[in-house]
């Protein structure tokens, strides 16, 4: 099964650099990277071109003009260029563990989608990590307990213990909680069947919940990727959430229509 990792980014080269390095260090090499660039400046393209020239990864860069927060559209454009049968959605500020692709592959199953989890890093730890000359997972894990005790990261055990597959991972119905677009996976044919992400949902917030709801509404079973696929979410300032309430209202409207 060929996998495409769709990495969403916007004007954050330092974080994207470490994310791509972490993907380069995967134990499973049978995947491509498609960067979904929501209108970054020229320095992002320059960085990606340079990284591609020395990397063993297969990388595509899909860009559109910066006309505001249009994550749904750029994810759809990137997905259209993906050659993989299976899509893993990742954010460009989420560093992955070496077995990230392998764990997603183990959990993948026809008729299912995966919603993964994240470990949140605070501003101090994020600054420390990005000061390193390169990403080093072993170095990070060697200090994980210290990071946790100091409050630099909000999780310890899910990064040290990996649990296998099982029916306990399956959600019985749609629930809003724990849907993170920064770590999510589904079959490309299923994404296409629902028309991908809703491109009319612009601005930050809830396009991921809408995507998951429509996949489940089509009959797919949502499976949790927690304790298996955790990503390290680098700190960033809060996004403009002025559209979040309207986006949430539209998702609730679809949920209520389904319930009738």
Automatic annotation (TrEMBL):
Residue ranges occupied by any Galactosyltransferase C-terminal domain in the UniProt entry: 173-221
Gene3D superfamilies (UniProt xref): Spore Coat Polysaccharide Biosynthesis Protein SpsA, Chain A (3.90.550.10)
Keywords assigned: Transferase
Occurrences of domain Glycosyltransferase 2-like (ranges): 4-119
Pfam family, one: Glyco_transf_7C
SUPFAM superfamilies hit by this protein: Nucleotide-diphospho-sugar transferases (SSF53448)
Signal sequence annotation: none
GO MF annotation: an example: transferase activity
Keyword Transferase: yes
Name of the protein in question: Glycosyl transferase
